[in-house]
Design brief:
mainly beta, two-stranded antiparallel sheet
């Protein structure tokens, strides 16, 4: 179980979330799409997270060579740029259900980063900020793309909750081995 924090101010961005082994595949991106908003169902189920090892989001760079279009995965971002491009965005971003983090983040609308007809496309970089102002997440939720929220791996850190609880119970500046009860220390001798 893991909690994600803002690297700038230390604010907890999520509750305790278990990890999925990988980002779930989307066989049919239109299955479960909300009829009112047009948004797809979230890539990651509520109350979980997954680490995306591939580059995701802005910036985009020209693809090295022309290639046959791959089968759509349902996770492609809607971009108006012409020509074949690849993401050069961050690797190892945490992908979460938007409802697990949205109450703690505010939209950062500047330029094109919130464009889309039914929601943000996510193609123009971080569009959500912590209350301290750090732009640390990108939400893609337009009607023609995925519905997923990526936390920037540089601006956010994760901490296993069990370790965070143990550290919080230990007096500040006291090493772990010195904070154990005397009886427990004697058992090991």
């Amino acid at each position: 179980m893991t909690v994600f924090y803002c690297a700038k101010c230390g604010t907890a961005l999520t509750g305790d979330l278990p990890a999925l082994p990988s980002v779930p595949d989307i066989d049919d991106p239109d299955a479960g799409r909300d009829e009112k908003t047009g948004q797809a169902r979230s890539t990651v189920p509520r109350g979980h997270y997954a680490i995306d090892p591939d580059p995701w989001g802005a910036p985009f760079v020209p693809a090295p060579a022309p290639r046959q279009p791959a089968r759509a995965s349902g996770r492609e971002l809607l971009r108006s740029a012409s020509g074949a491009t690849d993401s050069a965005g961050p690797r190892n971003s945490a992908v979460l259900h938007p409802d697990d983090v949205m109450p703690r983040l505010t939209p950062f609308t500047c330029g094109d980063n919130w464009t889309g007809c039914c929601g943000p496309t996510g193609a123009h970089g971080p569009n959500l900020a912590c209350t301290c102002g750090s732009r640390l997440a990108t939400w893609a939720a337009d009607c023609l793309g995925p519905n997923e929220l990526h936390l920037d791996p540089v601006r956010v850190y994760a901490w296993p909750q069990s370790e965070a609880t143990e550290a919080a119970q230990r007096p500040i500046g006291v090493p772990e081995e010195l904070s154990r009860p005397v009886e427990e220390s004697r058992k090991r001798e």
